[in-house]
Amino acid sequence: FLLVSLCLAIVSIQAQKSDIYVVSVGISNYQAISDLTLPEKDAKSIAELYKTQTKNVILITGKYATKTRILKSLKDQFSRAKEQDMIVFAFSGHGYPGGVCPYDMSAKDESGISYREIRSILKQSRAKRKIVFADACFSGGIRNNASSNRQVHQDSDVLLFLSSRGGETSIESPFMVNGFFTTYLLRGLRGGADADRNRRITAKELFQFVSQGVKERSKDLQHPVMWGRFDDNDVL
Prior knowledge:
Elements: H1 2-16, E1 20-26, H2 39-51, E2 57-61, H3 67-79, E3 86-92, E4 95-96, E5 99-100, E6 113-114, H4 115-124, E7 129-135, H5 151-154, E8 157-162, H6 180-192, H7 203-217, E9 225-229
Parallel strand pairs: 1-2, 1-3, 3-7, 7-8
Antiparallel strand pairs: 4-5, 5-6, 8-9
């Protein structure tokens, strides 16, 4: 009886163990708009970091990062998550005030991936912890039309960590391996943001670390934004 009870308890604990589901996208060379230098390295670096924590990582770069493939990957990957899990969408590339630019972005906004589409996919996932990291120009613009879409965030906590304010560009340097925002994001998640050294990095700690680093590196030209429905003490 004790052995059976122990086995059932182990199975129950394993069933309840949380996991992370990640989609990391980076686009440096675009089909029809100007190219960038570091986004694909950004996406690969983030994917490599999360692979130390989970096997559920999808990496999409370059010409493969079309609008259709990105949206399908987000839906498929995040639909696998259970309530206790965390889902992470990381994007590095061009952005516009209403969203982010896939490889096949054209001059028309509808060819992009709007923040409304991203929020809709987040809503469909059962996971209660949802994170978006966006290293893209004008990424803070997600807040500009959010008031009319609050229903998307109503059912679960969503953390949106964006590289710049709505009217700012996100800076990269040829002398760095990653863009300003991704550089400090990676440093923070690897332990640099653990201000109290308790081996847990909270949303507040990560924002303070990344925000300070990016503002100093950009000489106050770029200001990361953290927004959404989440607790400052959420452990990331």
